[in-house]
Design brief:
The chain is α/β, with parallel strands linked by helices. It has helices at 9-25, 52-58, 63-69, 74-94, 107-118, 139-146, 165-183, 205-215, 229-239, 252-259, 272-276, 303-307, 329-343, 374-387, 404-417; strands at residues 2-7, 30-34, 98-105, 126-130, 152-155, 195-200, 220-225, 245-248, 280-282, 289-291, 315-317, 323-326, 352-357, 393-397. Helix 1 crosses helix 7.
């Protein structure tokens, strides 16, 4: 077993040397991976276990080609090295030889190291010592990684080139962090209950509570906030095989991806459970609205507001930042067809159940709610049934989503899919 250290030796030799020494002093074996992609003019004394040439080769290229890309196609150079390092780390993990990863990096090294860490599963210690991860300009880019992986970030404040009292303290803290995580690891315990993923947000919080109350004695439930980032995380973890079933109360982020809303998830939303073939319980919560705040967009010829004529629709304005517009009949029909196409790919269609709360998809579309439009909800239900494979069951619930009746229906659908019980695996199967 080993801890990987990732860094550019030609730029951060002193810091990487100290980090290596401190980790080894704790009794851990180190694999130092040198991801330097410069000209090779600087020849450091520190010898890596994985050279830039080996890493480039693992990425499907060679180091000279990578260096040739630096001037005009730097992203491609970083991509090759990131892919190569990710392949090498994933192979070591699959062989049971990797117990943690720590990287010391500036901008190029941060992007490269995040690619590696994203290729490794939940629970494996991952520490990033970075001078740029806190930069607001790159928040959205870095969120693509932080949102789906349990990465511990140490913002360095100063750069980590050379050696001084501040860099020394950072390396000591980094060594202590990764070693502490590795040393605190425990053998995976056998799961006493099946593990269930569930999406929810504020417009179905009571419904989610009723579902949880019905099943928590028999299942371990992990909730995800369905505001875009949480959707990416749950898709990623379900795709790793971490869960025995997925209760997707709020799949609406796929609808927002199609329409252009603020909560848009990635285009592969709704696919992980289908790829894994696990029980998949869904509701249409959120398909009745489109997140389009802040409200000032309405008066600034915002492309989404103009293209979809949102100012002419029923709106729910929570505050200046959060605005929900009622989806139209044409939009929900299109969403239903796209959702059905995804669900029809599930290899075990009897394990897919779509619950349709007839009296409201969310707290906003119940009678008296700001986005109440039962005819539009009915159009979604009709289109969904028309496009779904007949082997996929739709379950009409004569209540709205935030009721005990809905909670009972969701619990019953889950239990039907898990009979006989599916035995939970302690390890994700796909790193």
């Amino acid at each position: 077993m080993a801890i990987f250290i990732i860094g550019m030796v030609d730029e951060r030799e002193e810091a990487l040397t100290l980090l290596k020494e401190k980790i080894e002093a704790r009794g851990h074996r180190v694999v130092l991976a040198d991801v330097s992609i410069g000209t090779g003019a600087i020849l450091p004394a520190l010898k890596p276990d994985l050279t830039p040439a080996e890493i480039a080769q693992a990425g499907g290229s060679d180091i000279e080609t990578v260096r040739g890309l630096l001037a005009k196609e730097r992203d491609k150079a970083i991509g090759v090295m990131g892919a190569g390092m990710a392949n090498l780390a994933a192979a070591r993990y699959a062989a049971g030889e990797l117990e943690g990863v720590i990287a010391v990096a500036g901008m190029t090294g941060t992007v490269l190291s995040l690619t590696v860490m994203r290729a490794l599963p939940f629970g494996l210690p991952k520490v990033l010592i970075s001078s740029v991860a806190a930069m607001p300009a790159y928040a959205a880019k870095f969120a693509e990684y932080f949102g789906v992986r349990d990465i511990t970030v140490m913002h360095t404040v100063t750069d980590t080139v050379g050696m001084n009292a501040l860099v020394r303290r950072l390396m000591l803290n980094g060594a202590g962090a990764v070693c502490g995580m590795v040393e605190a690891a425990e053998p995976p315990a056998a799961a006493d209950k099946p593990l269930i993923a569930m999406t929810e947000f504020g417009f179905c919080d009571k419904g989610a509570g009723y579902v949880r109350a019905r099943i928590q004695d028999r299942f371990n439930i992990v909730s995800f906030h369905a505001t875009g980032l949480g959707d990416r995380a749950v898709e990623d973890l379900v795709g790793q095989g971490l869960f025995d079933a997925f209760i997707d109360l709020v799949p609406a982020n796929y609808g927002e991806y199609l329409l252009g809303g603020n909560r848009a998830a990635a285009p592969d939303r709704l696919e992980a459970a289908c790829r894994r073939g696990v029980p998949y319980i869904l509701s249409p919560c959120g398909f009745d609205m489109l997140s389009c705040g802040p409200i000032e967009r309405r008066d600034k010829a915002d492309p989404l507001w103009v293209a979809r004529k949102l100012a002419d629709r029923a709106l729910f304005i929570q505050d200046a930042m959060r605005v929900q517009a009622r989806t139209s009949r044409e939009e929900v029909v299109a969403i239903a067809a796209a959702v059905a196409e995804k669900l029809n790919r599930h290899p075990r269609k009897a394990l897919v159940k779509f619950l349709l709360p007839l009296e409201g998809f969310s707290s906003l579309s119940v009678a008296g709610g700001q986005l109440y439009a039962p005819e539009i909800d009915a159009a979604f239900a009709a289109a969904l049934r028309a496009h779904l494979d007949p082997a996929i069951e739709t379950i009409a619930v004569d209540a709205h989503i935030n009721t005990p009746e809905f909670g009972q229906a969701a619990a019953a659908a889950l239990e039907a899919c898990l009979a006989p019980p599916i035995h939970h695996s302690a390890h994700p199967t796909d790193p």
